[in-house]
Amino acid sequence: METILTVNNLTKKFGFLTAVKDLSFTIEKGNVYGILGPNGSGKSTTLGIVLNVVNRSAGSFSWFNGSLSTHEALKKVGAIIERPNFYPYMTAVQNLKLVCKIKEVSPDKIAEKLELVGLLDRKDSKFRTYSLGMKQRLAIASALLNDPEILILDEPTNGLDPQGIHQIREIIKKIASQGTTILLASHLLDEVEKVCSHVVILRKGEKLYSGPVEDMLASHGFFELQTEHTDALLDFLEKQAIFGAVKQENGVIKVILKEEMDAKTLNEQLFAKGIVLSHLVKRKESLEEQFLTLTNNIQKPA
Amino acid sequence: MLRLLQIELIKLWNNRASKVLIISYFTLLLCMALIAAIKFDIGPIQFHMAEQGIFNFPYIWHLNTWIAGGLKLFFAIVIVSMMANEYSNKTIKQNLIDGLSKKEFIASKFLTVFTFSLISTLFVFLISLTLGLIYSDFTELSIVFSELEYLLAYFVKLLGFFSFCLFLGILVKRSAFALGFLIVWYAIENLALRFLVWWFAGQEASATFMKYLPLESMSNLIKEPVTRFKAVQSMVAQVGEELNKNYNVHFYELLIVLLWTAIFIYLSYALLKKRDL
User: Fold this and answer.
1) What's the pLDDT at B14?
2) pLDDT of residue A292
3) Which residue, among A219, A228, A240, A188, has the nearest Cα to A282 in the 3D structure?
4) Cα separation, B178 vs B268, whole angstroms
5) Which chain A residues contact residue B89 at CB under 8 A?
6) Distance from the A102 Cα atom to the nearest Cα atom in chain B, whole angstroms
7) Cβ atoms of A8 and A56 closer than 8 Å
8) Which residues of A touch B90 (CB under 8 A)?
9) Is residue B35 within 8 Å of B121, Cβ to Cβ?
10) CA nearest A102 in B: which residue?
11) Which of B14, B100, B276 sits opposite A90 (nearest CB)?
């Protein structure tokens, strides 16, 4: 598989603060990646480094297997970080023409890309007259001008209203369906869950997980149980290797499965032991719960 | 190269404020020609500026480049804001992300400054040539095209000054503060440094030292031409004084300014490279 970006032991220090610590991951062509992490976990810093606007303290990264210098590689990348930055006194078309000059691509595609993000009718309005949602969409159009190998988005829906969020997501899905590699940084989990096939999870600059979303959710789920014979139940759960961690919360026993087991089997086994359940639910953990578990910040709903 | 220049010109030309300032600058340069129109006609006193010999070749090269040099401060606003605006709009970040290297970014700014200095020099050349051809007492080719080193000095002076402005724009990141800093720096050179050296090493050392400072070395390139004017000189002679001043453009003075230009451009690049955006 073609490698687009390789990051090796990347470290960034701002004075005493280590924003990114010894981070390594690889981006392969054709996948949709999510970088997940709470605010201040180093997502934007990492992207800033590979995008040539933040200097690294240690480590290395290479675009396209190191075949191109960073700034040449960036011409084949489309990126939007944090807030859309354009010349406020120039119109959408003028701004995009400038981007074409920088990226050394022909300006033929400007109309097509503006159409894609639904800004064609406002193409001659000055950038400063745009709403935040429109600015963000213009940024996407600008990032797509060169039909990039990879599209990098940093919190693309930050600060948008629900309609704007929906529009941006639709655009991202459309682009992903065309086979463009996408790297999406976000702290919004459902956003990542909806579009990404792979995730990198960061906390305080350190990588906690990287790999396919399914593998991360590869847990076999968990049972929620309730019974009058709590002690007998706990005893039973502890003796079987198939069960992992057991937690008690508000009288509900939550037990994580290490292997596949359906609710019927468990019920039969327990009934045979004389343990009668008053409550039995089998659930899969959502990405959110997984994420919170990984980031040691568990706030489960009661 | 052309691409980098085009990038910068798109940014400048679509900005109304910059456009107005650029056009005004060149219009003001043109207005130099209006000196020719100064004419008093009060009964017995008849005075026509153009007839006084100020437009004689080769003196006109000296006079016009000196006057035009004063207008550079006006253009400094454009230069400083074209740099500082990249920071306040954060477009510098977007430019780099879009695939402009830091070197190219500085190069595109420097090329613009170079081009404007060149156009300005050409402009002054054409205006002076026209004025001279109309009013000069001598129009022999050898005289017309003598002392052209003033034009070279003018070009280097602009290049150096604008490079300083670029550097200030990057250093301070805010146009108004950068212009303020320019004025403060002028004061530092002319008050603090001048008198500090004077105090420690005497007047002579101070005068020599001043020649090496950025702003002073730039203004020193073209010395004031007023006392060189023969009407002024004869007036001074009547009082019994004699002016012995060297008005020439010296090679080492050009070198100092060019050196400062290189230093400022390099520092701008180093600063941009070192900073996280």
Assistant:
1) 92
2) 72
3) A219
4) 14
5) 85-88
6) 6
7) no
8) 83, 85
9) no
10) B100
11) B14
pLDDT above 90 for B110: yes
Q: What is the DSSP letter of B35?
A: G
Interface mutation target, options B5, B83, B98, chain A, most CBs of A under 10 Å = B98
Contacts of residues A288-293 at CB distance under 8 Å and 24 or more positions apart, as own/partner, are: A288/A189, A288/A190, A290/A216, A290/A217, A290/A219, A291/A36, A291/A189, A291/A201
Residue B46 corresponds to which tokens in the numbers above?
Answer: 């008849």
Q: Which residues of A touch B (CB under 8 A)?
A: 14, 48, 51-55, 69-75, 77, 79, 81, 83, 85-90, 94, 97-99, 101-104, 142
Instruction: Order the strands of the A58-63 sheet from edge to edge.
Output: A17-28, A3-14, A58-63
Are the CB atoms for B61 and B148 separated by under 8 Å?
yes
Do B98 and A99 lie within an 8 Å CB cutoff? yes
Helix or strand or coil: residue B57?
coil
- Residue A297 predicted with pLDDT over 60: no
C-alpha distance from residue A282 to each of A37, A172, A257 (Å): 28, 33, 10
Provide the pLDDT for residue A63.
93
Here the contacts of B140-148 (C-beta below 8 Å, separation 24 or greater) are B143/B57, B143/B58, B144/B57, B144/B58, B146/B57, B146/B58, B147/B58, B147/B61, B147/B62, B148/B58, B148/B61
| pLDDT score of A105 | 92
Interface of B with A (CB under 8 A): 3, 6-7, 10-11, 14-16, 89-91, 93-102, 104, 273-277
Query: Which band of pLDDT confidence, cut at 50, 70 and 90, is reported for residue A254?
Result: confident
A298 pLDDT more than 50: no
Q: Could you give the angle at which helices B2-13 and B16-31 cross, rounded to 10 degrees?
A: 100
CA distances from A102 to A71, A85, A98, A290, B2 (A): 10, 15, 6, 42, 12
Residue of B nearest to A91 (CA): B14
Enumerate the β-bridge partners of residue A212. A198
Query: Looking at A210-224, A232-246, B15-29, B87-101, which range is the least confident one?
Result: A210-224
Share of chain B above pLDDT 90, in %: 51
Q: Which range scores top for mean pLDDT: A27-41, A232-246, B45-59? A: A27-41
- Residue of B2, B86, B94 to mutate when probing chain A, most A C-beta within 10 A: B94
Task: Please answer yes or no on whether A75 and B14 come within 8 Å at the CB atom.
Answer: no
Q: Which among A32, A171, A76 has a CA at the least distance from the CA of A114?
A: A171
- CA pair distance B45, A85, nearest whole angstrom: 63
pLDDT recorded at residue B33: 74
Query: Nearest-CA distance from A165 to chain B in Å?
Result: 22
Task: Specify whether the CB–CB gap between A247 and A254 falls below 8 A.
Answer: yes
Contact B91/A55, CB-based, under 8 Å? no
User: What is the sign, positive or negative, of the torsion defined by CA atoms of A192, A193, A199, A201?
Assistant: positive
Length of chain B: 277
Strand, coil or helix: A212: strand
Q: Which two tokens stand for residue B75?
A: 């253009």
Tens of pLDDT, residue by residue over A103-154, are 999 999 999 999 988 899 999 999 999 998 899 889 989 999 988 989 999 8
Cβ contacts of B91 on chain A, cutoff 8 Å? 85-87
pLDDT score of B32: 78
